[in-house]
Amino acid sequence: MDTPMPNAPVQAYAPASIGNVSLGFDLLGAALKPVDGSRLGDEVKIHPAGAFSLEVKGTFAHKLPADSEENILTQCYRHYHNQAEQQGHQLEPCAMLLYKNLPIGSGLGSSASSVVAALDGLNTFYGELFDQQRMLLMMGELEGQISGSVHYDNVAPCYLGGLVLMAEQADNIAINLPVFEDWYWVACYSGIKVSTAEARRILPQQVALKDTLTFGRQLGVFVHALHSGDRKLAAAMMQDVIAEPYRKKLLPGFDEARAFAIQQGALAFGISGSGPTVFAVCDDLARAEKINQWLSAHYIQNADGFSHICQLDPQGSTAKKV
């Protein structure tokens, strides 16, 4: 039986992400990178140890279960080891340290960030036993334990970077799309918590034929506009006819925030994932700054809230030996 030796300590980072991107419910996702150089995402450090252990630090560490057995990183560790054993590898244990920098239930892919940082870090630590597609499958399975169903619109952009369309084929789970590098994405977290599972429960089980046709048309035209470089057409398609009409009632101040952003010239405005984070897309930094200031003053509900001007993160997660 092959027993690979653990590598040197590893440090991994996985960025926040926007799920759905308004028009692509469960099918589109985008990775975020603040323009001020700050990090918006979870970090995981891994080093050799005689037995597995998990420590949690960071701004939102107190929001996680005190029992490490209930932490998704413990499940990531066990799942990775189980998959490795099935391929004939007997792995040595390691110690993991999670810096929980993203708020829980924020609509920024918080659980996906933890899962991706953990699994990407473990794969680097143990010598990259699994390829990209197998890693994505594992990430989707584990993130689904928290959100209530397997979907890749957060884990895929978080891992791969950029703007991603879900194909969900065994050999091609997600496809990176062209992006407009001069677009700014203002992401504002209000500070309240919205459970992904709860936000899915309020959606109707059936969608009207008219809305289904609109959804398909918008997604198809949006992808075409990205490939043809048509910014105006792409932005015009960024409307949510599936989830936003129901979910916005969970978000205090959403309609006012949208009205202000559009009035100030935002190309699009919507809910990030299940919310409460909202995002505004701008093609001008000055507009983005004005919208960012307004959202910071009017949409944020408590001290946990924050707002960042971002661009899309082309790299996604990183894991390196230290």
UniProtKB/TrEMBL annotation:
Its main location: cytoplasm. It is found in: Cytoplasm. ATP binds at P103, I104, G105, S106, G107, L108, G109, S110, S111, A112, S113. InterPro entries: GHMP_kinase_C_dom, GHMP_kinase_C_sf, GHMP_kinase_N_dom, GHMP_knse_ATP-bd_CS, Homoserine_kinase, Ribosomal_Su5_D2-typ_SF, Ribsml_uS5_D2-typ_fold_subgr. Catalyzes the ATP-dependent phosphorylation of L-homoserine to L-homoserine phosphate. Belongs to the GHMP kinase family. Homoserine kinase subfamily. This is Homoserine kinase. It comes from Lacimicrobium alkaliphilum. The lineage of its organism: Bacteria, Pseudomonadati, Pseudomonadota, Gammaproteobacteria, Alteromonadales. The gene is thrB.
